[in-house]
Amino acid sequence: MNSSSKGKLVVRCFGVSADGFGAGPNQDVNNPMGVDGMALHQWVLPTRTFQKKLFGKDGGTEGPDDDLAKRGFVNIGAWILGRNMFGPARGPWPDDQWKGWWGDEPPYHCDVFVLTHHARPPISMKGGTVFHFVTDGIEAALRRAQEAAGDKDIRLGGGVATIRQYLRAGLVDELHMAISPALLGSGENLLAGTDLVSLGYKCTEHVSTENAMHVVIGKA
Amino acid sequence: MNSSSKGKLVVRCFGVSADGFGAGPNQDVNNPMGVDGMALHQWVLPTRTFQKKLFGKDGGTEGPDDDLAKRGFVNIGAWILGRNMFGPARGPWPDDQWKGWWGDEPPYHCDVFVLTHHARPPISMKGGTVFHFVTDGIEAALRRAQEAAGDKDIRLGGGVATIRQYLRAGLVDELHMAISPALLGSGENLLAGTDLVSLGYKCTEHVSTENAMHVVIGKA
Question: Pick from A37, A111, B47, B135: CA 20 to 30 A from residue B80's CA?
Answer without folding.
Answer: B47
